[in-house]
Amino acid sequence: MTYEQNTPNNPSGAVYSKNELESIISWTKTNDVYLILDEIYGKLVYGDTVFHSGLSLESLVNSKMIIINGVSKAYAMTGWRIGWAIADVSITHAMTKILGHLTSNPTVVAQYAAIEALNGQQKSVETMRKSFESRLNFLYRDLSEIDNISIPFKPSGSFYIFFKIDSKFMKKNNFKNTNEISMALLSEEKLAIPSGEGFGMPGYLRLSYAKSEAELIEAVKRLKHFFS
Questions:
Q1: Number of Cα atoms under 13 Å in the Cβ half of residue 1
Q2: Which of 13, 16, 35, 172 gets the most CB atoms within 10 Å of its CB?
């Protein structure tokens, strides 16, 4: 049995506290469950939020915990396709056997680029993090003022806002689900916003703020027009 968690989370932007992660790790150990922790957004947290890696809470030796990470988010290297898994040697050996039959190796240039990203100066990461936080702050404020949508909580990490659509708005406009709203936004407002159905949360839409401020301001205008 396998249990997977993503912190900071996509799509909600929630970040697990140290106590929450310790509880999850304890439960998986008690129940002999493999735990996969996806930490790809770990460098992108905001305000007073502190990110806690599973590596700081549990030794991987003889453990069933697997840490997933990569360079695509914090270093804006999505197209380079470089990521990694860290686990006990018995697990990585098994993973290597399977992976060897599924895919070829990353390109050499991508591997060297990832080495530089991880070992080079980290100023650019902090610059991006601050930019994301600035975008989050104004988006949270402006989206909260739009009729017929609500944001359950302000995200603490990643670069997404997951907002809920008012059920009365959906019924009034004959939308059966947020998949239909997503397609309507694409058709009528030229906005591509994934629906919550893809994340197991119908009734929500996910907005990414990994865009320029100008594009996000325009997106808010179009959302306001659509939902007003």
A1: 8
A2: 13
Beta bridge partners of 69: 84
What Å distances lie between residue 48 and 44, 45, 157, CA to CA?
12, 8, 11
Our measurement of the distance from residue 72's CA atom to the centroid of its chain's CA atoms, rounded to an integer in Å, reads 11
Judged by phi (left if over 0) then psi (alpha if -120 to 50, else beta), residue 73 lies in alpha
DSSP code for 67? E
Phi-psi group of 95: left, alpha or beta (phi > 0 → left; psi -120 to 50 → alpha; rest → beta): alpha
**Three-class DSSP category at 69:** strand
This prediction has a pTM of 0.91
- Each residue's pLDDT tens digit in the chain (228 positions)? 888 999 999 999 999 999 999 999 999 999 999 999 999 999 999 999 999 999 999 999 999 999 999 999 999 999 999 999 999 999 999 999 888 888 777 889 999 999 999 999 999 999 999 999 999 999 999 999 999 999 999 999 999 999 999 999 999 999 999 999 999 999 999 999 999 999 999 999 999 999 999 999 999 999 999 999
Four-point Cα dihedral 158, 164, 170, 175, nearest 10:
30
Alpha-carbon distance 171 to 197, whole Å? 17
Cα distance between residue 3 and residue 20, in whole Å: 14
